[in-house]
Design goal:
The protein is α/β, with parallel strands linked by helices and about 180 residues long. It contains six helices and five strands; from the N terminus they run H-E-H-E-H-E-H-H-H-E-E. The longest helix is centred in the middle third of the chain and has 17 residues, at about 70-85. Bound molecules: zinc ion. The site of zinc ion (ZN) has 7 residues, from loops.
Amino acid sequence: MSNIAPLLERNRSFAKSGAWRNTPLLPFLPFKGLYVITCVDPRTDPADFLGLDFGDAIVARTVGGRVTDAVIQDLSYIAYLVEAKAPEGPYFEAAVIHHTDCGSRLLEDPELRHGFAERTGYDEQMLASLPATVPADTVRADVAKLSAAPQLSPRITVSGHVYDTATGLLATVAEPSERSAGR
Ligand SMILES: [Zn+2]
């Protein structure tokens, strides 16, 4: 018995609802013009805390909501699709969201970090840079990283936010700004 099996009933209800018929067209422009990057933590699903409905946003999730090379590659691809297939736009906003009480902070423990590096071969220094220790700071750093990424269309705006797991509230720490960098 798989863990997903008990949820198949919910899938049938979803299929019956017909919500999936309301689908944005390729190149994929989500209804709310948003590409959300947030943590894998099950408490930080933007469908919950932003009330996203079907097709509202593209959502990428990484440990800590950190902007990795893979995140930049995917985001650049979607941005390029818009550039190539619908250059008139509308373009979208990439919203980076980090949160309080993040499990990425467990990597602050040198012993745990060393063990993970030993177990996997990942670079220990790189792992040391992952924890969202002060989420307002790490989110600003990731907004700056995205803003400076030459792969990403300069027409994509980038914003940064912190989600508070103790209150359910989202606070903006970096307003969306047009990017001069890139291309
Ligand atoms: Zn987290």
